[in-house]
């Protein structure tokens, strides 16, 4: 696990974003940081701004104000300098259906300018339990297999910082546990930093070093899971989530 | 962990090879894609070829005009495929929900365009070679009778096709999949002004004026000039390339502006979802 002495990998400062001039803020003054080797999750209800925040972190969106720096590089202006050290998987994305698992990974290995792609693919297929599907077209995979292939693609460049958007949403409990174990091994052995979103509070509790809770575009709580539960006097993260989200919703009413 | 890897060089060959690899594999397996390369050009060739067989029997019809028809058809198809190659490749990224993967990769939007141009060259070579061979055996039309000029004609048309393809891509990116019909239709907006089958001189005044701003019109005029009088109006070819560069500059400018605006407004993230 990362300590306070670990270098900062990602720093977001007062990030704000809205999609139209008179619209609501999708992300409203969010500041957060990630240290090398940390597993950090962002949780929040639908529409809380999690995806918009991650899209700004990936350089897909430019903040209206504030900044996101990854490995010291401002993502709004220098994304390409550090893009080979970062990757992302989301259940919203897929890969070309007509290509096999191996061909898709080969293409992305080349796009990320990787060497020894063949052996890298073999290792990833083993870790994602997809070895027997290497020559199967993506269009013929199950939803869970597509999700695992998306994660294999996200690991093709051996990223130092990995963003996962609901990585286990479509996986059964056994495969989810296996995936968590693989990711934990990568974090432990290679110092990979992991930022992920999930609606599975049990998973977040077990897997994360720290949690950021978002609501209405803002960070409403942050800390280690046990500290948060102590602070809000709840027995688990789900109760804490409901308490905070419920508070937000009753304020809306 | 090892020291950080250096950034991917702008001119690294692997990312381009990766984009090209995907296209090659896609084509290897897809019957509709092979149809796009061979089937439609072949049908066009047959329809127009049979027409030329009929026209040749009309005593007053000039033989050079007959061959010009087939030459025009082959070159027009090349322009069409070049434009479509770029736009359809982009649409395929949207359809397969793959666009975001490319946008977060250590490449620029220009790499994506570069990959599309390379794959378009491969497709054009395949498609045009087959069409040219068939035109020779079925209708005794030798495309190489255009001599060395043929290379410049092809290059000028490819450049125009690519520029329109990039522009179409920018419009689809900006306005979403509702604009995807442009990928197939935009080139036909230029056809009446491209002097494909008729000289510019027969066009009415305003149409002729528009035609002078279309690079393809100079190419087709040049082709007819070579076939009829074996003389290439060099000035026309220079004008075609000048306009090509202008089109390419405008297309790249619009494309990069749309990408920049997309990163501010986020409309590209809705595509394909």
Describe, in plain words, how this protein is organized in 3D.
The complex is a heterodimer of chains A (253) and B (273). Chain A has 253 residues and is an alpha/beta fold. Helices cover 39% and strands 23% of the residues of chain A. Chain A has helices at residues 50-57, 75-82, 101-111, 117-127, 143-154, 173-190, 201-207, 225-232, 237-252; strands spanning 8-17, 27-35, 39-43, 65-70, 73-74, 86-90, 161-165, 193-197, 210-215, 218-223. Chain A has a 6-stranded mixed β-sheet with strand order 6-7-8-3-9-10, with helices on both faces. A 4-stranded antiparallel β-sheet of chain A has the order 2-1-4-5. In chain A, a hairpin with a 2-residue loop joins strand 9 and strand 10. Chain A starts with 7 loop residues before the first strand and ends with a helix. The mean pLDDT of chain B is 85. Chain B has 273 residues and is mostly helical. Chain B has one domain (13-270).
| Strand residue content of chain A | 15-25%
Largest interface, counted with CB-CB under 8 A?
Answer: A-B, 43 and 38 residues
Query: What number of structural domains do the residues of chain A give?
Result: 1
Unreliable sequence segments of chain B: none
Seen as an oligomer or otherwise, the chain set is heterodimer
Q: How much is the average pLDDT of chain B?
A: 85
Number of domains of chain B: 1
Number of helical stretches of at least 4 residues of chain A: 9
CATH superfamily of chain A: P-loop containing nucleotide triphosphate hydrolases
Structural class by SSE content of chain A: alpha/beta
Write down the secondary-structure element order of chain B. HHHHHHHHHH
Please, what is the average pLDDT of chain A?
88
Describe the main β-sheet of chain B briefly.
Answer: none
List keywords for this structure.
heterodimer; A: about 250 residues; alpha/beta; Rossmann fold; 6-stranded mixed β-sheet; 9 helices; B: about 270 residues; mainly alpha; about 75% helix; globular
């Amino acid at each position: 696990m990362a300590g306070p002495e670990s270098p900062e990998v990602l720093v977001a400062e007062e990030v704000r974003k809205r999609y139209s001039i008179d619209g609501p803020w999708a992300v409203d003054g969010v500041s957060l940081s990630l240290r090398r080797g940390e597993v950090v999750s962002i949780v929040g209800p639908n529409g809380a701004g999690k995806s918009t925040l991650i899209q700004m972190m990936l350089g897909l969106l430019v903040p209206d104000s504030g900044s996101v720096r990854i490995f010291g590089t401002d993502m709004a202006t220098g994304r390409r300098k550090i893009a080979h050290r970062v990757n992302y998987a989301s259940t919203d994305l897929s890969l070309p259906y007509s290509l096999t698992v191996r061909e898709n990974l080969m293409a992305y290995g080349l796009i990320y300018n990787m060497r020894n792609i063949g052996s890298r693919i073999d290792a990833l297929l083993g870790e994602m339990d997809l070895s027997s599907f290497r020559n199967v077209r993506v269009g013929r995979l199950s939803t869970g297999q597509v999700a695992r292939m998306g994660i294999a693609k996200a690991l093709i460049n051996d990223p130092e910082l990995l963003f996962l958007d609901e990585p286990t949403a479509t996986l059964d409990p056994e495969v989810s546990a296996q995936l968590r174990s693989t990711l934990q091994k990568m974090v432990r052995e290679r110092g990979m930093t992991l930022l992920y979103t999930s609606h599975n509070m049990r998973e977040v509790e077990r897997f994360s070093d720290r949690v950021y809770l978002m609501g209405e575009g803002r960070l409403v709580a942050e800390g280690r899971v046990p500290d948060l539960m102590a602070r809000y006097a709840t027995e688990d993260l789900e109760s804490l989530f409901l308490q905070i989200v419920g508070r937000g919703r009753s304020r809306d009413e | 962990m090892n020291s950080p890897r250096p950034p991917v060089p702008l001119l690294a060959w692997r990312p381009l090879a990766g984009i090209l690899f995907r296209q090659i594999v896609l084509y290897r397996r897809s019957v509709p894609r092979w149809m796009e390369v061979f089937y439609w050009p072949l049908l066009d060739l047959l329809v127009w070829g049979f027409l030329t067989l009929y026209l040749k029997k009309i005593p007053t019809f000039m033989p050079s005009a007959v061959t010009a028809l087939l030459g025009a058809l082959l070159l027009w198809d090349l322009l069409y495929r070049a434009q479509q190659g770029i736009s359809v490749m982009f649409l395929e990224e949207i359809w397969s929900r793959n666009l975001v993967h490319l946008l977060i990769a250590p490449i620029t939007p220009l790499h994506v365009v570069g990959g599309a141009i390379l794959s378009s060259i491969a497709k054009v070579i395949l498609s045009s070679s087959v069409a040219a061979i068939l035109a020779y055996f079925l209708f005794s039309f030798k495309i190489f009778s255009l001599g060395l000029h043929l290379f410049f004609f092809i290059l000028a048309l490819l450049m125009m096709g690519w520029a329109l393809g990039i522009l179409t891509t920018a419009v689809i990116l900006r306005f979403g999949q509702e604009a995807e019909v442009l990928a197939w239709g935009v080139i036909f907006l230029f056809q009446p002004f491209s002097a494909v089958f008729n000289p510019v001189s027969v066009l009415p005044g305003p149409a002729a004026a528009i035609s002078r701003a279309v690079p393809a019109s100079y190419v087709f005029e040049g082709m007819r000039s070579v076939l009829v009088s074996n003389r290439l109006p060099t000035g026309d070819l220079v004008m075609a390339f000048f306009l090509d560069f202008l089109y390419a500059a405008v297309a790249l400018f619009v494309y990069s502006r749309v990408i920049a605006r997309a990163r501010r407004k986020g409309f590209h993230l809705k595509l394909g979802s």
